[in-house]
Design brief:
This protein is of the alpha/beta class. The chain has a single domain, classed as L-arginine/glycine Amidinotransferase, Chain A (5-stranded Propeller), CATH 3.75.10.10. The chain is built from 9 helices and 17 strands. Strands 2-1-17 form a 3-stranded mixed β-sheet, covered by helices on one side. Strands 3-6-7 form a 3-stranded mixed β-sheet, with no helix packed on it. A 3-stranded mixed β-sheet has the order 8-9-10, with helices on both faces. It is globular. The two termini are 24 Å apart. The N terminus is likely disordered.
């Protein structure tokens, strides 16, 4: 953990999160073809990786709790290898009061359920967890039926959200369907900006949240991965017009999970940015100084999840607004 927490009030970041404790964490063969960040361990390494993942997950949970973040924890089912990456099957959104010329109207707190590409990941949408959420989120948007049409949108993996400006950014991929992005934006009430982003091998990033994060007045984004100049210009202009300070990320930094950060607040409404230690080491000193002028960085080792699961800190935390 870096410097002491600084007080920066921000109501657009969650202070309560869900984490799913891993049970026999392992390589998911159903996601490996579309996630270039994953690598399969050797057979002799498999049990060691599971133990390391369990320990690293506890360290992340303890870091959040000791920093004043409220954490709800559930254990994963053994048949769900990617269950710790719990931000992909649902998202929550706070109630909003809309003012207008003819008066105001109220949108209740909302739970969105998403269509997932890998069949074994659909098991993560557990009825017990959905039932736990329903009392706090009376409005439910259920997009899961699109799985029957082989159309997918994987929540805040696919969508990088600027909740203050109500803008959603999406890097298109097999897991991020453009028409479903539009449908989501219409129902949730966000402006949508889509683009194509490619890694060093010319492969689309499987999720937007490995090349981009937004929160606490900053946006980390791999602009160099967006090949089309027009798309790159639109993205930059939208971020700047929302008052966000851009932290440009290289493709190499994205490969080290610098884009996979999450903005949270603690019980004192102080600004936090959560990342892995690998990401922290991969930011330049100047970039870390910029980030720390907006939020306190919290980091811990997440190597097992990064190497075997292809996901990092942001993927392991789902906000409960």
């Amino acid at each position: 953990m870096s410097s002491p927490v600084r007080s920066r009030r921000n109501v657009y970041a969650a202070s309560h999160v869900l984490m799913i404790e891993p049970v026999h964490f392992r390589y998911n063969v159903e996601t490996g073809q579309t996630n270039a960040f994953q690598s399969a361990p050797t057979e002799t390494d498999e049990h060691r990786i599971a133990d390391v993942a369990a320990a690293q997950h506890r360290q992340l949970r303890d870091l959040l709790v000791s920093s004043g973040v409220h954490v709800t924890v559930a254990r994963s089912a053994e048949e769900s290898p990617d269950a710790p990456f719990c931000n992909n099957w649902f998202s929550t959104h706070p109630a909003i009061h809309h003012d207008g010329a003819g008066g105001g109207h109220h949108t209740p707190a909302t739970l969105v359920l998403y269509p997932l590409m890998a069949p074994n990941r659909r098991l993560e949408r557990r009825p017990d967890l959905i039932a736990l959420f329903r009392h706090a989120y009376p409005r439910v948007i259920d997009l899961t039926g699109y799985e029957r049409e082989a159309r997918f949108l994987e929540s805040t993996g696919s969508l990088c959200l600027d909740d203050r400006a109500r803008v959603a950014y999406a890097a298109l991929s097999p897991r991020t369907d453009p028409a479903l992005c539009q449908e989501w934006a219409r129902q949730v009430g966000y402006r949508l900006i889509t683009f194509s982003a490619l890694d060093e091998q010319g492969v689309p990033y499987y999720h937007t949240n490995v090349m981009m994060f937004i929160g606490h007045g900053i946006a980390g984004v791999s602009l160099e991965s967006i090949a089309a100049p027009a798309e790159r210009a639109i993205l930059r202009q939208a971020l700047e017009s929302s008052g966000l300070e851009i932290v440009p990320l290289t493709r190499a930094q994205a490969a080290n999970f610098c884009g996979n950060c999450l903005s949270l607040t603690n019980d004192l409404r102080e600004a936090l940015l959560i990342m892995s230690s690998q990401a922290y080491r991969s930011f330049t000193p100047t970039q870390r100084t910029t980030i720390e002028s907006h939020a306190t960085i919290l980091h811990t080792e997440l190597s097992a999840f990064e190497r075997v699961g292809g996901g990092s800190a942001r993927c392991l935390i789902a906000e409960l607004f």
